[in-house]
Structures are given as structure tokens and as C-alpha cells.
Amino acid sequence: MPYRDRTTVERWVNEYIESHSADSLGVAVLDKNFEAGPNSGIVVVTLRSASTITFLHPEIRQGLPNWVVTFEERNETLDLDDAALRQLAEDLMSLAELRSFLQQKTDAVVLTH
Questions:
Q1: Which domain of life does the protein's organism represent (predicted)?
Q2: SS (H, E, C) the chain
Q3: More confident residue, 70 or 42
Q4: Around 71, how many Cα atoms within 13 Å sit in the side-chain half-sphere?
């Protein structure tokens, strides 16, 4: 499916960044795992005030691809002042919007196939 193709996912991510002025959000599409399967099309997001590894990826649920956000486990505590907490909140809002954007793009592809 095209939503698992690295070029397509990168194009969608770049389109999102440009259309939402989200260049402060650190987003990268991984070079690996772009074969069919649940670990395909992984988009890594760097949060500015939290070192948690965060990524978006499509999972098949009820026969349809659904983009989900994964926050990997942390070993250390996270202490934030007001500014860092607001920055994290902004990053999480952008992350939610990016997830919705990727889902809309994927839904459009799935509907045409």
C-alpha cells in the first residue's frame, strides 16, 4: 500500500510541516522497515522538552490501517518548569495533528484502492 512507501510518507510529513508551520517539531522518517507489515512507515518525532522516544506508525485494526503514536518507556523522571511544560504541550498538539493528517492521507489512499 502507498501509505507504507517511504517516499509517500516523507512527502506527507513534509506537506504537513509546510502547511502547519511545524518546522520546530523534529520529525524524521526512518530509512528501515518499509516493507509490508505493522512496523512499516515509522515516523520518529523529537519532543523539545522530553527525551522520550516517540514515533507514529500504521497498525492494522479491523482490517484497516490506523496511525498510532507510541511513547517508549522512560527510565528517568521528567521535571518541567512552566516554559518547558508549555513547549511539551505544543509538541503534543502538533503530534496529534500530524497523526490525524497521516490518517486522513492514508484513508484517502485506502478508499481509492
A1: Bacteria
A2: CHHHCHHHHHHHHHHHHHHCCCCCCEEEECCCCCCCCCCCCCEEEECCCCCCCEEEEEEEECCEEEEEEEECCCCCCCCCCHHHHHHHHHHHHHHHHHHHHHHHHHHHHHHHC
A3: 70
A4: 9
Q: Using CB atoms within 10 Å of the CB of residue 57, give its burial: 0 to 12 exposed, 13 to 18 middle, 19+ buried.
A: buried
Q: Phi/psi of residue 22, each to 5°?
A: -105, 35
The C-alpha cell 515516523 sits at 43
- Condensed to tens digits (0 to 9), the pLDDT of residues 1-39 reads 666 777 888 899 999 988 887 666 788 888 555 555 445
Mean pLDDT of the chain: 85
* Nine-digit cell string for 94: 502538533
- Rounded Cα distance between 28 and 41, Å, is 11
Place of cell 512507515: 41
Say if residues 111 and 3 touch (Cβ distance below 8 Å).
no
